[in-house]
Amino acid sequence: MTTIGEIGEDALIALFVPRLPETDAEILGPGDDAAVLSVDGHLVVSSDVLVEGRHFRREWSTGADVGWRAAMQNLADIDAMGAVPTALQITLCAPSSLDVDWVLDFADGLREACEPHGVGVVGGDLSGADQIVVSVTVLGETHGTEVVTRADAHPGMVVAVSAPLGAGAAGLAVLTAGVDAAPEAVQLFKRPRPVVGAGLEAALRGAAAMMDISDGLLRDAGRIARASEVGIAIDSAAVPVHPAASVAAQALGVDVLPFALTGGEDHALLAVFPSAGSMPSGWEVVGRVTEEFDGVRLDGAVPESLGWDHFSR
Amino acid sequence: MTTIGEIGEDALIALFVPRLPETDAEILGPGDDAAVLSVDGHLVVSSDVLVEGRHFRREWSTGADVGWRAAMQNLADIDAMGAVPTALQITLCAPSSLDVDWVLDFADGLREACEPHGVGVVGGDLSGADQIVVSVTVLGETHGTEVVTRADAHPGMVVAVSAPLGAGAAGLAVLTAGVDAAPEAVQLFKRPRPVVGAGLEAALRGAAAMMDISDGLLRDAGRIARASEVGIAIDSAAVPVHPAASVAAQALGVDVLPFALTGGEDHALLAVFPSAGSMPSGWEVVGRVTEEFDGVRLDGAVPESLGWDHFSR
Q1: What else is known (chains A, B) (predicted)?
Q2: Contact A227 B147 (CB under 8 A)
Q3: To the nearest whole number, what is the mean pLDDT of chain B?
Q4: How confident is the model over A21-68, as pLDDT tens digits?
Q5: Chain B contacts of A229, Cβ < 8 Å?
Q6: Category of B139 on φ-ψ map: left (φ > 0), alpha (ψ -120 to 50) or beta
């Protein structure tokens, strides 16, 4: 094993950069003070961070898994605006004792996630730190369509999700319990598989409000409710549960529903449509928008738990 | 004192976001899955990271100092391309025990640095972590001018810097030594004051290659040499030393020159011009571009030390 402290920053960059995905939008790529991109239409930009020990553990996820997740959750944010992702900026902080191979594996995961979508890594920064911290900024374009925000949900509209929920959260619970079970859920925690492009399709079909579910259905539905100054009523019986989550819940002897309601690991989309008839295929109605500006209700009541808070642990 | 763990993520965001600077380029600001910006010309993008215990210490720098530095060093990267900065994305990782006031102070520092330049913070992410890690991605525009890269230095051209060097590194040395001296150098370490716009001016005056000095004059000159496949000969007697660095060196009883040659804290610009006559006022010639592709030479010899490596400590 060779550590990144042993080879140093310049040598690490020389090994790392050639493994990164490229984009056609790139005019000047990594290696200068800044990268240069062509942008067609409006620029859409978002950032997400992954912290070792909080969002991933090295004993559970490979470098490639972390690279994949870092890319995917950011592509989902652009897709959730109804826009098209083009490029990533990556900052990687890591202890000097980290294996060089981990970093190269991380680059491979970024490439695997990005290449099918024509998305490139155009720049970033490296630094030492006590734990691995990956920060990703994703850039995208609108191509003339309007972005879909969280703020335009109206009473009477339907609330829907783009895919069955809970697999990632259930996989995390399996790993946390140290149980050897539910490999599909575990794999979906390590490598979430949101359908990039589902958001653009929803936007073209008239989605009024949309976001990616990154902190759990209930918490994120509350965010649409707040931004739109409406209420959102979720019907728990209507929430599609991922079969892998059910397998995991059974192995753990717990109820599967909380994984689907409060898990944010899948990066499926949550959207509000004028009616169920206008949804693209594959989406499932999980509730409706209500008049009263009072947050999210689950089966008519205030939910006991909303799920994840980034500073609560 | 109230900690960020006590108030939680949503409450922290509600306090933090209103203190951030705004930009006229903003179409949709913080609070959605992504921000939306208008871009005129080509997009220029760069990222830098600041890690507690490596780039700053809380006992030396306030939250506002860290916010200021985080913004300034990123604005300098866009300026160093001869482009104009417009917006920042910020990710902030911090322990849950951090004082809320530190985070709000951090926002104030961002605003102080950005507002004079019309630069806004349009989005970002917050997460828990064991130490504070600030990652900034800066976005800028070219407005029709060509960017100035590191790759177009040619033999016979002059190498110049935009400002006297060494104050920041000397200030850091004073703080590290625990000496109560040289307050100007200490202040310039905490709040570097690169002249944003100096790079655009240099670009308009025909700078052939340019970068901001973030890892020290010698190391960064070596990067221009490598990118341009030339040599760069630096004349140590010609390097302008900041008066505050001299005061600090005297107080510490050390030679001032290493601060100017290997300190990267000032974020002054390093550029190559066709001739000394084409430089904007205030720039000083420190060397010349040579034919042989052999890196950087100091007074004719390979330098003993190049300065900072991000994983070497």
Answers
A1: Reaction mechanism of ThiL seems to utilize a direct, inline transfer of the gamma-phosphate of ATP to TMP rather than a phosphorylated enzyme intermediate.
A2: no
A3: 94
A4: 999 999 999 989 999 998 877 999 999 999 999 999 999 999 999 999
A5: none
A6: beta
Give, in order, the Cα–Cα distances in Å from B252 to each of A143, B38, B170, B175, B187.
58, 50, 9, 11, 16
Measured between its terminal Cα atoms, the distance across chain B in Å is: 33
The answer to whether the CB atoms of B46 and A123 lie below 8 A apart is yes
| CB within 8 Å: A36 and B42 | yes
Residue A276 distance to chain B (closest CA, Å): 23
Nearest to B51 among A93, A140, A309 (CB): A93
Q: What is the pLDDT at residue A39?
A: 87
Would you state the pLDDT for residue A311?
Answer: 55
Model pLDDT, residue B308: 54
Q: Regarding the domain with residue range B7-141, which homologous superfamily does it belong to in the CATH classification?
A: PurM-like, N-terminal domain (3.30.1330.10)
What is residue A217's predicted lDDT score, i.e. its pLDDT? Answer: 96
Strand B295-298 versus strand B231-234 pairing type: parallel
Residue B313 has a pLDDT of 38
CA distance to partner chain A, nearest, from residue B254 (Å) = 27
Minimal Cα distance from B89: which residue of A?
A47
Report pLDDT for B112: 98
**Residue B308 backbone phi and psi in degrees, to 5:** -60, 130
- Measured between beta carbons, the chain A residues lying within 8 angstroms of B81 are 32-34, 36
Mutation pick from A310, A312, A313 vs chain B, by most beta carbons of B within 10 Å, is A310
Q: Do domains B7-141 and B158-298 have the same CATH topology?
A: no
**Fold for the domain defined by A158-298:** Phosphoribosyl-aminoimidazole Synthetase; Chain A, domain 2 (3.90.650)
Nearest to B36 among A33, A43, A313 (CB): A43
Residue positions forming the annotated binding site of B for ATP = 124-125, 150, 214
pLDDT at B41: 78
Spans of all domains in chain B? 7-141, 158-298
C-alpha span between A263 and B84 (Å, rounded): 41
The residue that leads in pLDDT, A264 or A60, is A60
- pLDDT for A110 equals 98
Burial class (CB in 10 A: 0-12, 13-18, 19+), A192: buried
What are the distances in angstroms from CA B8 to CA A134, A313, B76? 22, 10, 33
Residues with Cβ within 8 Å of residue A56, at least 6 apart in sequence: A50, A65, A66, A69
In the three-class reduction of DSSP (H, G, I as helix; E, B as strand; rest coil), residue B226 is classed as helix
pLDDT at B143: 79
Output the pLDDT for position A179. 95
Q: Are strands B269-273 and A120-128 parallel, antiparallel or unpaired?
A: unpaired
On whether the A8-141 domain is CATH 3.30.1330.10, my answer is yes
